[in-house]
Amino acid sequence: TDSSRARSGGPDNGDGDGEVRVKPVVAVVGRPNVGKSSLVNRIIGRREAVVEDVPGVTRDRVAYDASWQGREFTLVDTGGWETGAAGLAAMVARQAEYAAQTADVILFVVDATVGITDADEAVTRVLRATNRPVVLAANKVDGGLQEADALELWNLGVGEPFPVSALHGRGSGDLLDAVIAALPETAEPEEEDDDLPPRVALVGRPNVGKSSLLNRLAGEDRVVVDSVAGTTRDAVDEIIELGGRRWTFIDTAGIRRRFRALQGADYYATVRTSSALERAEVAVVLMDVSEPLAEQDIRVVEQVVEAGRALVLAFNKWDTLDEDRRYYLEKEIDRQLSRVSWAPRVNISAKTGRHMERLVPALDTSLEGWNTRIPTGRLNGWLKELVAATPPPVRGGKQPKILFATQADARPPQFVLFTTGFLEDNYRRFIERRLREDFGFEGSPIKLTMRIRE
Ligand code: GDP
């Protein structure tokens, strides 16, 4: 449960990122041919293998999603880490070392029919030196005849051997019970209620047309002017039907109250925006194309990314655009919004109603990207190929090794890379770019963090 050394800092991460909740990791170690992969397959029930739909990523996976008795964990097959170190015992010991550094629980597999070998002893020495819980699997106990062989493995001194047959499934329930019992306590993931209408925050600096757009969407030309602007009232959310579905627009009272009436309302608007983002799933950042993009526009976009919300960029007042302005606008977008080039764009006019119908597809795209989850097996198959083709740059004479990765969360997608060294910003950006190319995530920020065990 050594998470204190986790470091964060993906391309999109601010410092206030906090600790990422990662499922517990169970690493399967043991010398070649003891049946590690068979046992892994037995435990995951080949669930991930059957949903494979990306050609070329089935080979060399190292990590999988697994669960037993309702407890979820990441199962890591260290067989995928073989690096051709000198000598079998040395190689297996090295794997065990990595495993001990990254995993919460070690599942140590020994072939009961062969008995204790030098390599098994090398692994045992490594495991003893760590404080990780070890569960010992005595594999290939296919029938009663091998039970006695299993008992001999007490001599390893790492506790009770659980007789199993990865081939036939025998004993795996008791083994998994022991694994689960050894897992650290973790907070249960929050329930997500998919039945409620998606929550949209309409944000942007004063005068870009937020209340005009809201009125247009709500199908009413009523302009609510509040004579006591600036007095705080409870935020009011409105449910608006768009594209045949319901959407909750957050803090519409705040939008309709027209904060632009207030001078020096900048700070207040920022606070208002962050509290709306807090409750939103997706943000529409509205910008006014009749004026140059302002620092304040960029700041709102950054607020959305930092809050980890899905993002749609809406360029309003398109009716005012002439050729000349349009040319400069594209330049401004390229220059100032390149950081969010993944966000869908709509060019609209709240005044004329231009392209209102494009808003819903853009919202859907962003929410889909935001909700995307990549199964661990698939992610690691992909990552392994990526790293083989473009390894992380050497740093301080050492090449950091990426052992495996998991997607710790969605909404927004958060990835945790388990590594043996620090990965440069550039390399993490490279991974993010490739994740986007191969898996989408359109309209969503992505967070990449590292868990470094040197
Ligand atoms: P808010 O402060 O972001 O809520 O902005 P408002 O909705 O109050 O709009 C500010 C001003 O821009 C008002 O005078 C609107 O009439 C005008 N406006 C809003 N949308 C459009 C548009 O699409 N085209 C044009 N030409 N003017 C717009």
TrEMBL record:
PROSITE patterns for the chain: G_ENGA
GO molecular function: GTP binding; ribosome binding
Alphabetical GO biological process terms: ribosome biogenesis
Binding site for GTP 2: 204-211, 251-255, 316-319
Domain EngA-type G, chain residue ranges per copy: 24-187, 198-371
Binding site for GTP 1: 30-37, 77-81, 139-142
Domain of life of the native organism: Bacteria
UniProt KW keywords: GTP-binding, Nucleotide-binding, Repeat, Ribosome biogenesis
Matches recorded under Gene3D superfamilies: 3.30.300.20, P-loop containing nucleotide triphosphate hydrolases (3.40.50.300)
A Pfam family it matches: MMR_HSR1
Protein purpose: GTPase that plays an essential role in the late steps of ribosome biogenesis.
Subunit structure as annotated in this protein's UniProt entry: Associates with the 50S ribosomal subunit.
Protein name as it appears in the record: GTPase Der
